[in-house]
Amino acid sequence: MTVTTFSQNFKINSKELVETIHSTADQFGAKGVWGPEPTQTGVCRLALSDIDKQVKDWFIEETTKLGCTIKIDECGNIFATYPGKNNNAAATGMGSHLDTQPTGGRYDGIYGVLSGLQVLRTLKANNFVPNFPITLVDWCNEEGARFPMSLMASSVWAGVKTKEEIYALKDIYDNKTTVYEELKRIKYLGDVECSYKANPLHAHFEIHIEQGPVLEKYGKKIGVLTGAQAYNWLNINIKGMSQHTGTTPMEFRRDALLATANIIVGINEVAKKFKGLASIAKLSLLPDVVNVIPGDVDFVLDIRHETDEGLVNIRKGCLEVIETACLNKAGNGVKLEYTIEDPYPYPATHFNKKLVEIIDEAAINIVGEDLKHKMVSGAGHDSCATNLVIPTAMIFVPSKDGVSHNPCEHTEPEELEAGFRVLLEAILSYDHYRLSE
Amino acid sequence: MTVTTFSQNFKINSKELVETIHSTADQFGAKGVWGPEPTQTGVCRLALSDIDKQVKDWFIEETTKLGCTIKIDECGNIFATYPGKNNNAAATGMGSHLDTQPTGGRYDGIYGVLSGLQVLRTLKANNFVPNFPITLVDWCNEEGARFPMSLMASSVWAGVKTKEEIYALKDIYDNKTTVYEELKRIKYLGDVECSYKANPLHAHFEIHIEQGPVLEKYGKKIGVLTGAQAYNWLNINIKGMSQHTGTTPMEFRRDALLATANIIVGINEVAKKFKGLASIAKLSLLPDVVNVIPGDVDFVLDIRHETDEGLVNIRKGCLEVIETACLNKAGNGVKLEYTIEDPYPYPATHFNKKLVEIIDEAAINIVGEDLKHKMVSGAGHDSCATNLVIPTAMIFVPSKDGVSHNPCEHTEPEELEAGFRVLLEAILSYDHYRLSE
Fold first, then answer.
1. Which of A199, A271, A330, B387 is geometrically suited to a Cys-Cys bond with A259, CB 3.0 to 4.6 A?
2. Do B257 and A283 touch (CB under 8 A)?
3. Is A343 in CB contact (< 8 Å) with chain B?
4. Structure ipTM
5. A367-406 residues touching B, CB cutoff 8 A
6. Cα(A214)–Cα(A183) distance, rounded to whole angstroms?
């Protein structure tokens, strides 16, 4: 049986994508050598830095060459629009981000924008005019590494943050510098209103590295995302009693770290029981001295689940674990006091069913049924913001060892190319689907 | 039945001891207010500081007034000798230290020296000439808080450290300053050889606050010490894998903190099983970020036992716990690597049986059988050094809530007075016993 795909008659140069990933990494922020090959470094490209300006300039130059029109909005988002037959309709969107973590790799975000660029290059090389315009977006400051708000400018576009809020954000390395000043300084304070109403997209497709080990462990090549997890971060403090480790018998102790250890063990069981995630990864002790029993432990409990109901169950299970650990185990009959800061959770994201179906079909056509995997995103992405206001869906490619936010973040060239092929197919398929809407 | 004690006919002014504790605290380093009363502060009197010099000068002045002769040795120890009938024999020693932790209280060490001073004042006030001379020692830098070696100058005196080693120690707050320079600067670089051979004592008695909760919990007033615990500090590193908490399913994690949590729980059980102590109180995570699974955990395992054999058992049990935790639980089938720095342990201290018997009898005579308690010291003391070379034993008084190395370290005045009474009785008893040797 021959499968008919929208991209089957296209000349495709997917190697050009991999070359572009490496050449832009080399030019714009290469840092963190992890192997002997010249491509074996990470990238440090903090949002609104000089290097971010340089890659933004390059992005505009490349997309302009392809015949795109450029809009820069008042939050530094860049919209490069490839014309279609019907330019009065809102464009089909693709996008991700070109900024990185300080210890970033070559793929996180970058791969999504450059795959979108490769889609546009492919249309151009094939002299293909889509039914509707196609807009490639470089969303500004997805990482929140320098200016501490992740999904920064996509959140303003989606109406859940205001431009005033983000303008006032301060550089964590230099608290005299704000987003507003830096946007102005690097000349990316555009005049287009940052809003899905004033500057709409018809849909948003995003391809991204997984940043987790699931595809690799299951031997899959394409993740078809149905959504992103609900999550919450709870700040917890346990109070014990600081006493000399040498002079305080075990039966007279109130050890806040022992309570915390029981909690760490317990929340891991809760997460498994409810098929979600629970992690304690940031923790501090007072006084943190070899021979003084910890009198005070602070930690953050990170809980996640595919569903909002699942998150409620995990939260409940973890709170029971905390209560039990403080009640019974570590205080030798004296209950340890604890406090919990328990903010409102981030709800689960559910991507648009039609877009998920289009991506799923594209994945089957490109890599086959056996190599694609339906999953949810563990991390947040610009698509979580766009999904609030327009049809959105995402594609994942494998991350070697699940490593990300690390220079040695890696995805094999053939996996990068297969992902791009799925994105191209999905974009063409959606462009065709829009005719019937 | 009337009990005959050696001190029964003495005029005793034990309130003077408590007054001296407070007046010297007020004059020499009061710091850290913890209550509304003027006596409710701690003391910060770092070894070889200006304040330490001032209290040393005061100590010499007070003991000289009582008719003592003074020797200052080349490590800053001060020996104040009250004459006896037979001044050719080595003196009976009593001593402790006048230096404190930066967040010290009014009693740790200080109580021992000032109780010794009160013994000498009592002999003087009663015109009592002992059979043998009695030397009160202010041991230099017991705490090791500023110059990082605890039991510093008593260890040189006992021959287990050299004066060259301690002269070279650097101020942890200012690495340009050494012990040698500070001894010289404050004029306590004496000319007497720092050695139990050149400047002998016949025995060493030390009274100290417990710094733990045992006497208080058991409702006892006097601890009769039979020795001090064996102990060891093991530096342990556990390697997991840093991965995103949101993207890494529980079953694919290698969580170094989960392994550590299982270890903390396990070593607590081991300690209880072998009736010793095991504590983890200093711990650091890498990267210590909310949403990154800890890839690396460093911690110190502090183990202690009354006997060397007990310490061997605890060490063995803890090593099994570590192996099991890294093998089975946290790596989802992948063994976590770990390293252990396992120095040679400090062996158990066993005090001189005769001195322990003398203190025990003195305690029975002063507070009664029911209020004295045989125990071992959890912390190190100058007596652990002197015990290596001369008959040594110690007396403890209760510490409120077991708190020490803290400004609010507290012992009730009547407990301080009772302790002094036991020391006086023991010194007189030993002076009498020496006639029969």
1. A330
2. yes
3. no
4. 0.88
5. 377-380, 401-406
6. 37
Q: Are residues B188 and B86 in the same domain?
A: yes
Domain count within chain B = 2
pLDDT over threshold 80, residue A70: yes
Residue B7 belongs to a domain:
no
> What's the CA gap between B296 and B327, in Å, rounded?
16
Average pLDDT for residues A175-198, to the nearest whole number? 97
Task: Give the best residue of A151, A214, A243, A341 to mutate against chain B (max B CB count within 10 A).
Answer: A243
Instruction: Residue A245: list chain B partners with CB under 8 A.
Output: 277, 279, 281, 302, 304, 378
B244 to chain A, minimum CA–CA distance in Å? 7
B280 neighbourhood in chain A, CB within 8 Å = 257
The alpha carbon of residue B268 is apart from the nearest alpha carbon of chain A, in Å, by 8
Name the residue among B248, B283, B285 with its Cβ closest to that of A213.
B248
CATH number at residue B264: 3.30.70.360
Q: How confident is residue B2, by pLDDT bands cut at 50, 70 and 90? A: low
Residue A8 belongs to a domain: no
Q: Can you give the residue range of the structural domain that contains A223?
A: 14-228+348-436
User: Which residues in chain B touch residue A272, judged by CB atoms under 8 angstroms apart?
Assistant: 250-251
Give the residue-averaged pLDDT of A42-50.
97
Mean of pLDDT values over A187-215: 98
Rg, C-alpha atoms of chain A: 24
- pLDDT at position A4: 84
A261 touches chain B (CB under 8 A): yes
Chain B residues within 8 A of A292 when measuring between CB atoms: 281, 405
